Amino acid sequence: MKTTARSAIRPLAAALALTAAVTLAACSGTPTTDSTSGAGAGGGSSAAAEGLKIGFSPFTLQAPALKGLADALTAVAGSQGDSVVTADANNDPSTQLQQLQQWIQLDQVDAIWVIPADGKAIASALTQAQAKGIVIIASGVPADYGFDGPQAGITFTVADNEAYGGKLGELAAQCITEKLDGVGNVIFLTSPQGAQSSEAINTAFRDALAKGAPDSKIVNEQDAGDRLTSQQTVSSALQGAPDANVMVGTDDESTLGGLAAFTQAGKAADATCVLGAGGNDEAQAAVKSGELYSEVAFDFQADLGQNLAELHKLAADPTADGSQLTIPLNVVTQ
């Protein structure tokens, strides 16, 4: 299942923060976020040639992940001659709609990247932008906004959580085959329930594991938590399943917590499979050192680049239908 970036914020927060840090380091000296108004922007091919003025509208800037994305977008856009204005809707769809309408009605932007609190609540602003030739990257799929299909000047983008969970399961099966003769007793720290993204990640993981390592079984399954909670959860699970030889986390904190529990229990890296998702610096270092088998992460740096390129493509002809993009995946291995 493909879902909006909003529904996937928890497992993706670390990746976004990492992207921001890497991008800002690479683009030091580029403009900071421009929060002032600028009239006369307008949409169309001339704006694309001269550099776009982009309005970035996440559902909140209070989440560190989204603030990091705003900073990274500002840095990268500035490095290529574009500029960025941002607005914080503070989780209020009505506020987000008003902010978007102001940009559109006052011709303050050529392009918009929106991560909505409620897609249908801001759909009228997207229609107004289309009428003015202002192009859009919108998180989700057309139906999230009440549209029947592709739209002129709008490209939609989603986090493919099914692919994310499936790749995690595929890598677990690969490690079990390589190191454990195809027989794994798995402790799985699931993406916490309550969002479509979690269900998609967890189901895809189980399916890929069963397909790739059919003689393996999940011996304990608990929600992922912070690092200490995850370490305690896995330590407790090992008491009930001392033969467990595989630990899979669905974000960096649960993965590193589970790794600590396996290490504390004296389980050697060469006789176990410990892997996870998220891709922060510490987890990647653990992969390189051999403590973790692999990490899966959404590649937000690549996604940022593809979204900027897409806005320029759309601006060259705002009357052409946009497309459906997915956030690329990155796999970290030794």
What percent of residues are in strands? 15-25%
The helix/strand series, from N terminus to C terminus, equals EHHEHEHEHEEHEHEHEHEHEHEE
User: How many structural domains does the protein architecture include?
Assistant: 2
What's the level 1 CATH class of the largest domain? Alpha Beta
Helix content: 40-55%
CATH topology of the largest domain, which one?
Rossmann fold
Counting helices, strands and paired strands, the structural category is: alpha/beta
Q: Report the span from N to C terminus.
A: 29 Å
Annotation, overall tally of beta strands: 13
| The CATH fourth-level homologous superfamily of the largest domain | Response regulator
Mean pLDDT: 88
